[in-house]
Write a structure and sequence with these properties.
34% of the residues lie in helices and 25% in strands. It is of the alpha/beta class. The structure holds adenosine-5'-diphosphate and magnesium ion. The site of magnesium ion (MG) has 4 residues, from helix 2. Magnesium ion binds next to helix 2.
Amino acid sequence: MSIPPTTDRVGQPAIHVQGLEKSFKHLKVLRGVDIDVARGSIFALLGSNGAGKTTVVKILSTLLRADAGTARVNGFDVVTRPADVRESISLTGQFAAVDGILTGRENLVLVARLRHLKDPGAIADDLLRRFSLAEAGTRRVVTYSGGMRRRLDIAMSLIGRPPVIFLDEPTAGLDPQARIEVWQAVKELAKGGTTVLLTTQYLDEAEQLADRIAILHEGRIIVNGTLDELRQLLPPAEVEYVEKQPTLEDVFLTLVGAGTEKEQR
Ligand SMILES: Nc1ncnc2c1ncn2[C@@H]1O[C@H](COP(=O)(O)OP(=O)(O)O)[C@@H](O)[C@H]1O
Ligand SMILES: [Mg+2]
């Protein structure tokens, strides 16, 4: 049997998740998660520490089995077509997977070789340029700043042009300048038509990057919309004569509650 042509899947969302449930022993982490991510968009899954963001990403990247529900990535079911899902994605974790002994360029060339691509050197040079690493490319990665490493990691995830990229807390632990650099890199991904699902605990990150934002709280998506739609959940505050729009932080704290440590029942 042959793989159906991609045109069959074009109309479908890049990521479709319905009724996803997952428990670890008695800990119910996901209690029915529904998400759709349009092709070529940036979708932020926002949630406090321990909300279950990484669990969702692991299920979508076939590293973990859900207890119930369905998940499709690039039109492929994660349970019945795991190999096709893995071909369709790349996953960049919180901890950069680059090798510090090698130079940035060598890291990229290595991955391109592993993927049996033609002209790994040209691929590496193109990515170094796109992620503002051209000058640093011949230096060992041990000498890179945190932001440079993370950018290199994202560049590596693009090799082979996967249509869907998962970024699990891409800026965790970075300083403000490095975070801005990584944001530029993520925007660069989406410009090229790649679908990006990113998880974050940072409201400003979701605000900066995402076309749509979903808040994962106590195992469910409690809101899902554009930044403007989320803002409309709260009335604007009247400050003297100037109307102040609610920030995403106002929306988040109102919905999730100021104490962000969740209770498990
Ligand atoms: N393999 C596991 N075994 C037991 N508990 C787990 C496992 N993985 C995650 N958890 C728990 O599930 C909850 C959600 O974890 P996670 O998805 O990593 O949250 P997030 O990425 O939003 O911080 C946490 O309470 C975490 O401790
Ligand atoms: Mg996590």
